[in-house]
Amino acid sequence: MQILDAERESKIWPLFRLGFRVFFLGGALFATLAMAIWALTLSGAPLLPGITNPIWWHAHEMIFGFGLAIVAGFVLTAIQNWTGIPGIRSWPLALVAGLWLLPRLLMPLRGELNLLVMVLDLLWLPLVAGMLARPIIQIKQWRNLFFVPLLAFFTLLNALSYYAAFGHNWLLAERVFITAVLALTALLAVMGGRVIPFFTSRATNTEKPQPIAWLEKLTLGALWLSTLGWLLLPRTALFNGLLALILLTAAIGNLARLARWNSRLTLKIPLLWILHLGYLFIPLGLLAMAAALQQWGITVSLASHWLTAGALAAVILGMIARVSLGHSGRPLEIGRSMVVAFALIIVAALLRSLLPLLAPGMTVIAYHGSALAWILAFGLFCWIYWPVLTRPRVDGRPG
């Protein structure tokens, strides 16, 4: 690193020196606050004065506010590792982070039907996609270009969610939200297949299992196909059965992938077992979604929480804990408080997805208990990682 570069770096607030910093911290803070607002709203507190449909707000903000903020932080950080070109930082990063934040702050007050809220919320993901596309195209690294159309797809789903809200069409909104959840799950499966076996082999000094080409194609293909199928296929018995079969295929494939990743070796390594345990919720969630389509004792909403409160939340918490340490120059070690946070997010997942299934009469308790465990888990992350994400790297390097 040249002295001139070091001088420029020192003038940038650490929070805006790389994408993971502002989006991991911002996403985790928002996840904590939004879940607290949701839990209080369920109890009757008037904390969403501008919102006409609180359920729409909860689903939308957990997906497009929280989930995609973490995705943005991950890809805006990983792009410099993929391409060798420095990642977005300083005022361009602050700009896109601001465009993400403004709709989150305005929506509870102005409502989901406010034009300014809609426009701002539909701008930030295309901006992230453009920031990704430039270095990828520059060095012709076409493998990672798929993130660009994927972010465009999420923007389309976001626009459809606002269209559904404008028309008070909850059935369309639910279809869009479940599609977005499946797309996030598919992305998680792609990235998880890249990094979880690699992290495990390095930490346990074992050989990394090589992916089986046909299993990867079958599993990931079925998952992406189920995502498009959920959005586009008519809701008839024939098509529901076909979609359930595709989801079943994806579930079995993901379970087979996970079985090859040496999960048994991770029991004493929290930064690993949270990823493996979180990933286990993917096949379980896909099985639940297939059962919901066939009306086998579970609703689509409850089934989807195996993927959201389960897979997405647990893997996200594990990944942002690990990535934040690695990219801030710190050793990959966590204390008891973060282990407690990992345990709490698993508790939150089980309370929200399993307890209403086993004891329907305790559904309200499950909602509030899960929300509390979620708030504590992400709140602990914010408390522990605030200094990590808002201060310069400990090794003096840029980023």
TrEMBL record:
Where on the tree of life does the source sit, at the highest rank? Bacteria
Q: Name the source organism.
A: Zobellella denitrificans
Q: Which InterPro entries does the entry mention? A: NnrS
Q: Which parts pass through the membrane?
A: 20-42, 62-79, 91-107, 113-133, 145-165, 177-200, 212-232, 238-259, 271-293, 305-325, 337-359, 365-386
- List keywords of the entry alphabetically: Membrane, Transmembrane, Transmembrane helix
Q: Could you tell me which Pfam families the record lists for this protein?
A: NnrS
Name this protein carries in UniProt: Heme transporter CcmB
